[in-house]
Structure formats: C-alpha cells, structure tokens
Amino acid sequence: MRKDGGVTVNQGQLPEGQPQRRDSGLRVPARVWLFGGLIAALVLITATGGIRSWWAHRLHDMTGGSKPADYIIGLVVGLLPLIAVGLGALRSRGHGRFRRAWRMFYFGAAGFVITYLLSPSISRVLTSSSSRHVFEREVPSYLPGVFTGTGLWLALLVVLVARARSRRRARRNRLTDPRDATSRVIDV
Fold first, then answer.
1. Residue 25 lies in a domain
2. Is 116:150 a contact under the CB 8 Å cutoff?
3. Where in the sequence is the domain holding 106, given as residue range(s)?
4. Distance of alpha carbon 115 from alpha carbon 83, whole angstroms
C-alpha cells in the first residue's frame, strides 16, 4: 500500500491501527431513561409525603381559606381521571379503536396518579394519618370535594360497565334466540 493511495477495507474488518468497536447489541432509548428517572423522582417525593403537605399549604395560599373555593378545587382534582379520559378521547379522534382506547387509558392513568399525589387515599383518611391532618388544618373543604369527585366518576364507571354488560347480554341473546332465526326450506 502506498502512503498517498486509497485505503481498502474488507467487509467486516477494520483497518490496522483502529481499535475494535464493541457492539453491545441492546441499547436503551433515551425516553425510557427519562421515563424511569421521572418515576424514580415521583417515588422519592411521595415516599416522604411532602408533596401533599406542600399542596395543602399552596392551596391555602391560593384560596385564602375560602371553603367554597377549596371544595371546587377538590372536586376538580377528584374528577381529574374522568377529565383526562375525555381529553384522551378527544386527542385520538380519527384513529382506530385500539389506539383510542389505549390513549384514553394512558390519560386516565395520568389523571389518577395526579389525583393520588394531590390528596391522601381514603384508607389514610380513615386511619387518622398525618397526611389527613394537614388538609383538615389548612384547607378543610378540599378533601370532601376530592372524595365527591372520586365518587362521581366511580358511580359513572359502575353505570357504564352495567350498561355495557346488559348490551352484550342482549346482543348474545338476540343472536342465540331460536325464534329470531329464520328457517330455510330447501325444496329438492
């Protein structure tokens, strides 16, 4: 090979003097690392319960201790999963049923997580947890609003599931009812 000449490389071999590249094969995308980091941060924040205390103090500062304002904000926070499902349905118009259902599920799950982060669960309220006391002290009407909103979307969910089951049952009975089936006589 001449010094001023071109370099030819055989397929699959590196030129002499080049370090060997290690191909790991499995590369984790950046969005997975970002999503995992976000989940880890949320777990660290909620493990201490500090976000609920912070939210109760900020809510008191925003509303100035107004009980109707506390209740309305609590109602909206309680209805966040339902609002998120509606936004997921609007954002996926024109797409297939499968994609629309998944988008509604993801949006609803995000709404549920936000509701969980901004209010104590019913079990913590019933067991006289410290996370309940900060809300009772700072924003006394907030938790009734959250639980009203949560109860509303749960009641709506029960009604929709019951309607879907009755429709499915009616459709199944309609297809298997022998009176509705037409009989065919074949004349030979």
1. no
2. no
3. 47-173
4. 11
